[in-house]
């Protein structure tokens, strides 16, 4: 699975690469409990997540892999991972500058939606903005934006959107230390997805 994922990664098919690498990662972590193998797969999976825009998550996973290599004194793997991290961090800085420029335009458009009273367009627009913040690891800003989206979907009686954002926001709140509120929001979203018969979303939240 790791070999197949690596091939897809080199070919630029990050969606398929993530499928193979995620499965391999779970096997190494849960069944084999192989830290060395987990570090190798984690480095590739981290890069794939980074390439998909989940920048901070990808960087953290690659750093975790480096720590695993250091524990085993795998000097060559540590050196290769250092080079990869340097390249990723350089790209992250470039992406950060591009994101700031994009967010300026996003905020202007959001103000226009607010002024016109177009709540539905505003909610979808801010949802995309929140995802951009999450991809950059800017959880505090994502929480603020998604909180507004959560309220908007509730006002629109958009149950699917309400549950989607609730699951995202609940995870952020949980990570911020408010575990009770975070779990409550995620649980509410899970029940909502079940009532709507959305099996894929239900499975994602349960995972």
Low-confidence runs of at least 5 consecutive residues: none
The biggest sheet amounts to: none
User: What's the rounded overall pLDDT mean?
Assistant: 89
**What is the string of SSEs from the N terminus onward?**
HHHHHHHHHH
Assess the beta-strand content as a share of residues: under 5%
Provide the helix percentage. over 70%
Helix/strand-derived class? mainly alpha
Topology, element by element:
Blueprint: H1 2-10, H2 14-32, H3 35-51, H4 55-71, H5 75-116, H6 119-135, H7 139-155, H8 159-175, H9 179-196, H10 199-206
Helix pairs in contact: 1-2, 2-3, 3-4, 4-5, 5-6, 6-7, 7-8, 8-9, 9-10
Structure commentary:
The longest helix has 42 residues, at 75-116. This protein is mainly alpha-helical and 207 residues long. 87% of the residues lie in helices and 0% in strands. The model has no long low-confidence stretch (mean pLDDT 89).
Q: What's this model, at a glance?
A:
This protein has 207 residues and is mainly α. The protein is built from ten helices and no strands.
Comma- or semicolon-separated keywords:
87% helix; single chain; 207 residues; mainly alpha
């Amino acid at each position: 699975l790791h070999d197949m994922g690596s091939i897809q990664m080199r070919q630029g098919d990050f969606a398929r690469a993530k499928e193979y690498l995620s499965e391999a990662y779970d096997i190494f972590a849960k069944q084999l409990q192989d830290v060395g193998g987990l570090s190798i797969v984690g480095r590739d999976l981290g890069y794939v997540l980074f390439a998909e825009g989940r920048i901070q998550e990808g960087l953290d996973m690659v750093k975790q892999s480096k720590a695993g290599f250091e524990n085993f004194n795998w000097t060559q793997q540590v050196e290769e991972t250092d080079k990869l991290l340097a390249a990723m961090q350089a790209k992250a800085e470039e992406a950060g500058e591009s994101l700031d420029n994009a967010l300026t335009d996003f905020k202007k458009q959001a103000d226009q939606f607010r002024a016109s009273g177009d709540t539905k367009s505003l909610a979808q627009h801010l949802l995309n903005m929140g995802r951009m913040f999450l991809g950059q690891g800017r959880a505090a800003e994502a929480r603020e934006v998604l909180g507004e989206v959560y309220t908007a979907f509730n006002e629109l009686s958009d149950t699917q959107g309400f549950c989607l954002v609730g699951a995202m926001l609940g995870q952020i709140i949980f990570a911020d230390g408010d575990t009770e509120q975070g779990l409550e929001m995620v649980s509410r979203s899970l029940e909502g997805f079940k009532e709507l018969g959305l099996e894929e979303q239900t499975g994602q939240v349960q995972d």
